[in-house]
Amino acid sequence: MRSYCLTDVGKKRNMNQDFVYASDEQVGNLPNLLIVADGMGGHNAGEYASRYAVEAMVDSISSSQEKEPVRLLSEAVNAANQTVVEHSQADKAMEGMGTTLVAATVIDDCLYVVNIGDSRLYVLDDRMWQITRDHSLVEEMVRAGEITREQARTHPEKNVITQAIGIRRKLKADFFDVALNPGDVILLCSDGLTNMIEDDQILQIVRQAASLEAAAQELVDTANQNGGTDNISVILAKPDWKEV
Predict the structure, then answer these.
(1) Secondary structure class of 35 (helix, strand, coil)
(2) In whole angstroms, what is the distance from residue 115 CA to residue 128 CA?
(3) What is the pLDDT of residues 22-53, one digit of tens each?
(4) Is residue 58 part of a domain?
(5) Counting beta carbons within 10 angstroms of the beta carbon of residue 207, is it exposed (0 to 12), middle (13 to 18) or buried (19 or more)?
(6) First and final CA of the chain: distance in angstroms?
(7) How wide is the angle at C-alpha 130 spanned by C-alphas 127 and 133, nearest 5°?
(8) CA distances from 34 to 22, 141, 175, 179 (A)
(9) CATH (domain of 214)
(10) Which distant-in-sequence residues (6+ apart) come within 8 Å of 48 by Cβ?
(11) Domain of residue 46, residue span
(12) How many distinct structural domains can be found in the chain?
């Protein structure tokens, strides 16, 4: 697999509370690992929450003897949650901090994904498919038929999330597995990207770019040109396909 990650503070924030991790090499019993976390909390607590969560997840996967990918990711998410909760309770300045987290691994032609919060994973071919489902108030309203998907993009409570790592000792993550096809591109991102760029423009940028690096940079640049109201994080990945 080939991947490239990029994170940017944006135009309006003083601090980047996103944290990204991408390894094309083996991490424990996983052949590769991609993670985006978007922290939240007063002062710099969100910055710590996202970093603590990602580092705890990587450490858990690196040391685990588990080989089944969903169980391995589940163990790691729980370890990340426990770590952030413990730091939050141990330091008054970090009380109430939390983070979204979306992580993925590609094994052969299958993509395994875990998600908590509203950071997202997409698979891009000739369309842009959102694999994850946001844990957010507006997503619940969309599913209930109270508002449309288009109305959700500009809803005043669109940033209210219903699940995050570090908020409770028990959490319920979503897991997905997706069969990949040759030419598919995987995109993980924080909402600082998707709030600033429409899906069709994201797809156009990725498909027309000369490389993953160029695509990631153009996505971040475009989000900033459109206002850059939040931190922006992007991971792009393409699986390696072997000839049969």
Answers:
(1) strand
(2) 18
(3) 999 999 999 999 999 999 976 669 999 999 99
(4) yes
(5) middle
(6) 17
(7) 165
(8) 5, 29, 15, 17
(9) 3.60.40.10
(10) 39, 41, 87, 94, 97
(11) 2-134+161-238
(12) 1
Query: Do residues 208 and 175 touch, judged by C-beta distance below 8 A?
Result: no
Residue with token string 């003897």: 65
Over residues 205-233, the pLDDT tens digits come to 999 999 999 999 999 999 999 999 999 99
**One-letter amino acid for residue 142 of the chain:** V
* Residue carrying structure tokens 């309006």: 12
| The model's pTM | 0.94
Q: How confident is the model at residue 244 (pLDDT cuts 50, 70, 90)?
A: very low
Contact 186, 237 (CB under 8 A): yes
Instruction: HSE, CB side, 13 Å, CA atoms: give it for residue 22.
Output: 19
